[in-house]
Here is the input.
Amino acid sequence: MTHYSAEHLRSLVEPHRVHRDVYIDPRIFDLEMERIWGRAWIYVGHESQVPNPGDYYATTIGREPVVMTRGRDGRVHVIYNRCGHKGAKVLSEGCGHAKGFRCPYHGWTYNLDGTLQGVPAKAGYDGTGFDMKDPQFHMQKVAQADSYRGFVFACLSPDTVDLKTFLGDAAATLDNMADRSPEGEVEVAGGPLRYVHDNNWKMFVENLNDAMHPMVAHSSVGQATKRLAAKLPKGAPYPREAEIIFPFNSSYQFFDEMGVTALPYGHGYMGGRMSIHSSYSDIPGYFESMCKAYGEEKAKEILSQNRHNTIFYPSFTAKDAIQAVRVVRPIAVDKTIIETWHFRLKGAPEEMLKRTILYSRLINSNASMVGPDDWDCYARMQEALKSNSMEWVDMRRGIGKEEQDNQALRSFGTSDLSFRNQYRAWLSYMTGEAA
Amino acid sequence: MTETAVKPDIREIEEFLYREADFLDRGDLDGWIELYTEDASYWMPASPEQTDPFTHISLFYDDRLLMEIRRINFGHEYAASMAHPVRSTHIIGNVRLQSFDAATGEARVTSNFHVAMYYRGEQTLYAGRYTHDLVRQGNDWKIRHKRVDILTCDAPLKSIIIYL
Here is the structure.
């Protein structure tokens, strides 16, 4: 397919900078689809999207159309969304319910796990070697599928570590998101935001642990909100909107204190005990419901974890304290769709979901006053990295100041540590070496 | 509210909707916001047939506070997304008075729209249906609630930089 040698790929990533080709070369993108998106555990969806046998959710992993289904036995399967006959996409994208799947072209039918159930006028295959039981005629299973606290991941390669090893300490974010429910479970609340970005997928992922941009890129909405807050009567509580927007204008010192943590496989997170979400006011009844479920000490411990964005490289990012996740869907070297999904904490007051929704509408929506400024900056990079004036993108801030903590590396929050960590993983995947 | 509120002339309502569209087409959010009541809201759902703006994500759900923030933010020198010209042209049709309460002066008006928007080197067409909840104020109207259902509400979309 492409002719890049491991040596060439290694030449694109230096300890303190990466070559611009990683963002703009379509051949690199093709290789990423094969070697990163084809080898890493990729987020597919949440089990609550397919609560009952026969429910399905059709989506993509990189360029591969897949379906998450709930079988009659209650198990969740991930299969390729390709008819075993002539290759038509069997299900259109999105959620649905079916007794089985039927290809709309020639009517081949499949069980919920993708095995072939029937073909019309089967006698025509007599003596051809065709065998219904032969998996080559089925909708194919992905190499590996597994879930963690209801979050379903799939891996298109059989030669990868298991999901739990892959997630490592990043799993604690999913634990915390679920544990913040008095019932220990979250469920998807409605459809996602779907946001088309004119940039390479990696720019988005990097930005989630980029603490040097909020006070610059998002200063306008902070200033606008401050001007209005100044008009409030003295002593009046800030509206929830202001409580959400203001922390985006926090100081460099604040983000430094949040800290950044880099984990194996390119994962990482900011914050831990404090983040831009840790000073929200209490929602009546929530803490009580948590104490009732866990006891006060355990409830306090759960609520004391506060990671900002956790990156599950390359496909997924999550906010434990906000119960919103972003799903990365690369389309082309300069086109990415970002989906934002929202979760209800089962057993918690509905106000918690309302805050999640408000947060996302203010920050993540295509029509918000935050997301479009990030979008614009990514697009500017995608445009100007074509310039021949410079070959390299710098990411040296804080280099050499990391501290090793078991498998993790930690540094001050505005360090470029997370970017360097992502490119270490990138290079491992791309050259076929263990991450 | 006037005690003599009579069923309004549809032409008069059309004229009001055109006036709102004209403020948006000229990027005049100062003028636009004055058409709204203090308790107004502007809603663009992210899902067809969406019934609730609070427990399901929307593209917009602005109360007056957020309208004011957006008005100040629009064209802000520190917002990267605002450094590009935004131009739009609204075409509104099929305007219908769905209900009118003579006692309160409240009217519900539905219409269809096509909005062509130019932004960042591209022209995008948004089409859909408006639902305006209007309230009589003197001889004029104010908007208490506007719902904007775009055909592509649940499709992948780029940035939506101004109200439609």
Remarks:
- The longest helix of chain B spans residues 10-25.
- Residues 45 and 55 of chain B are 11 Å apart (CA to CA).
- Chain B touches chain A through 36 residues (CB under 8 Å).
- Strands of chain B lie at 36-45, 58-63, 86-101, 106-119, 122-137, 140-150.
